[in-house]
Amino acid sequence: MSQDTQSTDAELRSKSRHRASHIVIAESRRLGDHSIHIVNVSAHGFMIDGNPGYERGERVELRLPVIGRIEALVTWTVEQRVGLQFERVLRLPDFLALLDMIGPKTR
Predict the structure, then answer these.
(1) What is the pLDDT of residues 62-104, one digit of tens each?
(2) Rounded to a whole number, what is the distance in angstroms from the first to the last CA of the chain?
(3) Taking the mean position of all CA atoms in its chain, how far away is CA 95?
(4) pLDDT at 92
(5) What stretches of 1-107 adopt beta strand conformation (E)?
(6) Average pLDDT of every residue of the chain
(7) DSSP state of 3
(8) Given a cut of 90, is residue 8 above it in pLDDT?
(9) Residue 60, Cβ neighbours under 10 Å: how many?
(10) Contacts (Cβ under 8 Å, ≥6 apart) of 13
(11) CB environment 69-98: b (16+ within 10 A), e (fewer)
């Protein structure tokens, strides 16, 4: 396959992200419980705005609609934005149901 037809990791990530707007309680060992605002989500992870103090490499546990309890790893932080990767990839039917519940309302 030629270089021109291959997608970069960044391109694949941007295509798989879905806008969201959902506040959930997340728990880390270091910081305890905090409300976080999920602003986009994929089957692999999510991004929040308003960093409560998470650092790269930190583990966070949260409870999502449809999915239930799931752990995520902080993979990056930039100013007040934080990217987290789920401990496992979400199954497609569960992910689609989650999107219905946490996606931005279009009404």
Answers:
(1) 999 999 999 999 999 999 999 999 999 999 999 999 999 998 7
(2) 44
(3) 12
(4) 93
(5) 18-28, 32-41, 45-49, 59-64, 68-78, 81-86
(6) 87
(7) G
(8) no
(9) 22
(10) 42
(11) eeebebeebeeeebbbbbeeebeeeebeeb
Token couple for 83: 């990217």
Residue ranges of domains in the chain: 3-102
pTM for this prediction: 0.82
Please report which confidence band the pLDDT of residue 4 belongs to, taking 50, 70 and 90 as the band edges: very low
- Count other C-beta atoms under 10 Å from residue 67's C-beta: 17
- The CA distance from 73 to 59, in Å, is 5
Residue 4 structure tokens: 């021109």
- CA dist 9 and 97 (Å) reads 25
CATH number for the domain running over 3-102: 2.40.10.220
Cα(70)–Cα(97) distance, integer angstroms: 16
Give the mean pLDDT of 2-10.
46
What are the CA-CA distances from residue 33 to residues 11, 78, 95, 107 (Å)?
A: 33, 21, 24, 32
